[in-house]
Amino acid sequence: MKESTLRHLILLLCLALAFYACRTKQADSTQQLTAQSEPDSLNEKVSVHHAHGFTIDYFENYKVVKIINPFEKSTDTTTYLLVQRGTAIPSIAEKATVIQIPVRSLALTSSMHIGLLSYLNSEEILSGLSSLQYVFSPKVIEMIDAKKIVEIGKDQGINEEKLITMQPDLLMTTGSPGSLKEHNPLLSEAGIPVIINSEWVEKTPLGRAEWVKLMAALLNKEEIVNRKFAETEKRYENLVQLASKVTEKPVILSGLNTKDVWYMPNGNSYMAQFFKDAGSNFPWKATSDAGSAPLSFETVYPVALNADFWMNVGFDPNDTRSSVLALDKRYSDFKAFKNNRIFSYNNRVNTRGSNDFFETGNVEPDVVLADLLSIFHPELLPDHKPVYYKQLK
Asked: For the chain, which domains are there?
């Protein structure tokens, strides 16, 4: 073989090896990029069994969340497209609000939704919150003190300019009539999506708690929420089964007369379901609405006279039987007052006056039910010490 031919073959071989190495490196890089772009949790999906206010469907690189508005007479559904970061936004995005996931910074209009983050151990993404004084979570309070969380408003008011300046990935607001229309246009123009959370109008405690699955979908934490919620669900259902054995069901009165209005849980509210599941008789269980009904003292009084337990009494953790009686002397006529069977959900209140019943209590229905069951039927849970409830002295 001629020397020139040999050199030509060696050159071709070197070029071939170099080309192969380049293609291999390129393929490795492409595989790495694809791996980084693939969703962390789309292989793990949540199924919604108890909540009626939202649905989640899964696709290759995105999730479709639909929030049902319970405040309109006709069905009104808002659609959200949860798109995995680094992947293409599907064409159907024109008909939905796009949210890039996992959400890295979140603003909340209600401290009640902190419990959703705590359940998933994800408080670190919280960057904005309304009414900072209502927070119970020690971890979130620490973040507030470190200036890691910005106050975005007070009570129902939202500082939209501050929100636009801080640019969170998402704002979660509490569902109410007109809540989406109130803030959506201006914030949408600024590229801040708004999602509505209406967990408080769910009809069952497990339904209300299941909104934590929506938060998990936003954070790609389906695996965690599936495991934890299954445990919560099992404990709750075991307690319901335990309560089903009782033969005598005490009559329950709930709430307090405030400014001439007594807000009584309706029969389709999660609180009425709590009373039922704890083996009690709630006189207003037949009402078909969710939420609460504004009643007069005169309407409640005849039933209240013979109620065995008076629950959810008082808003101040320092309330006593005497302080409640000072509000209206007619309370002394109640059987539950005479027998000292008055309880409030103020057992976990911090020095700021913030109540954990409205944070972690929302996502621990099994613990709340255990509290109620130990109060109504102490023989069934003799070793349980109430977590959220306490007896007024």
From this structure: 54-233 (3.40.50.1980), 244-391 (3.40.50.1980)
